[in-house]
Amino acid sequence: MLNRTADSVARATPEPLARKVRGISDKGLAWLFISPTILLLLAINIFPLFWAIYLSFTNYRANRPNEVVKNVGLANYKRILGDQDIWIAMQTTAHFVFWTILLQTLIGFTLAWLIDRKFRGHAFWTTIILVPMMLSPAVVGNFWRFLYEPQIGLFAYAISFVSGIPATEIGMLSNVSLAPWSIIIVDTWMWTPYVMLICLAGLRSIPEYIYEAAEVDRASNWRQFWSITLPMALPFIMLAVLFRGIENFKMFDMVNLLTGGGPGSTTEVASITLKRQAFESWRTGYSSAFAIILFVAVFGLANIYVKALNKVKQR
Amino acid sequence: MSLTSAHSVVAPSATSKRVAGTIIVLYALISIVPLLWIFATSFKTPPDSIAYPPKILFQPSLEGYCNLFTTRTRQTPEYINSLGPATGFCDETTRKRNMVIAGPSNFMPRFVNSLIIAFGSTFCAVFLGTLSAYGFSRFKVPLADDLLFFILSTRMMPPIAVAIPIYLMYRELGLSDTALGMILLYTAVNVSLAVWLLKGFIDEIPREYEEAAMIDGYTRLQAFWRTVLPQATTGIAATAIFCLIFAWNEYAFAALLTSGTAQTAPPFIPTIIGEGGQDWPAVAAGTTIFLVPILVFTILLRKQLLRGITFGAVRK
Fold first, then answer.
1. Which of A266, B109, B163, B170 has the most crowded Cβ, counting Cβ within 10 A?
2. ipTM value of the model?
3. Could you tell me the membrane topology recorded for this protein (chain A) (predicted)?
4. Are residues B189 and B66 in the same domain?
């Protein structure tokens, strides 16, 4: 699956032609082809990153560009780690990431497992299911505000139709205990197809002869599922979790438009806090420090996870 | 080698297929309802859109689309009666609400911005990505794995974290709220995806083609141009569509770094308001127009979708 084979084949192939150089040498061409990309990334990603690291040690405020910038050492980092609001935002993020991943994995895997039966018309319905994940989270998230409206919204109406609770009382976006679920529902609606698609690839990668052997051994369906289907699809499920985990840890657009972090700060995930600190309170130094901490956290967690993923794959 | 499922001992039974099919169709129908609702709302009149219970059957109207493309001011009935006959459908509908059209709205310029920035950045990202992918695929680049990982890792940063220094940098360089600034930024974000996807596609093209071309007297550059590029067309097209979708849908950078002349549609659409709150039919109309290109692309991309969303990690 992870295409290392093509790489190793490519490397093992000797290059008899490398010596017969005409025009630009291969080495020159390689750098000519690669360096524009690297330069662009250095300019737009890495240089700003170092700038952010520098700013994180200062008290700079972007709305007062003429003020003298003072070096404050690690003060910003200390304040963030002691800041109650930051910890609440991290908890909100963890709650959001945990539930979205859990729901998306469960529903996504189940859907993939059902689609793998290849019933009539499965390709068409799979395409329909995939549509939400291709759309702009911002534009669609914005529209969900309308669906969630307590009186006129379709979602509230459908829930009240099923449960009998008056539609006016279903304030998904105004109720403190419901608001965190409002963003989980929209994210799950949008991204379950993503997990489903990767799981489907996993299920289709399992060779049929393994099931045939199990059938010969008279293994029950239940047993086949737990000892063949699930373990063999596991690397794919873990890959889907990795991609969704990184994305949802950074989540900004959909939440910003749907709840804006409210009511109060009940749905204020890390990116929203960062935006409020950086672009509303203009605490540029402080928010740069928070940005660095977030980046290190994503990067560190992703690295640990990839190691675990590689172990599972090697089994 | 491959067994058709009909002969297989492990083929799912007819009943299990039927049950699975029913559940999938139900899920697909429920998950598509919000989109159908956006589409339906765009053809409702404002009173119909906020009716309780929500109206499923309604008299279709183009008022939402009229409101999307125009700004209107409220006038006295006497003033409206003093005007000449209505010049068109939108004029007439607006007058029925005791308003007159004051001018075009900002939707068209924002939509055009979206087009310019999405296509511009896609072109740059695919151009740079193709060159780099070929470089990584065919040449021994020192530290290739590290460089590739570096390219990918730029994608892991939260957009808001990147936006803080970019905001300051663009302010210094005069790139704030310019299409050029947004094109550069989206190119940088998309080029990681482009390199990873295209490297996969180019790896699949046998090197023998180029080597044969070079034996025939082509230089390496000519061989790249005449043999590799034509073979990679499908891959390049798929990559371009993925970049295009990302740039088209992007909101965080656009909302923080553009405010006027270079603003794209995603931060603009949520700001469409009518009298007394959000003008939902107009918002729905804007959303519908904005989503249609993506729906078309999704259908075109069906076969490559998996590869695109996993950065080429999973292929079929």
1. B163
2. 0.87
3. Multi-pass membrane protein
4. no
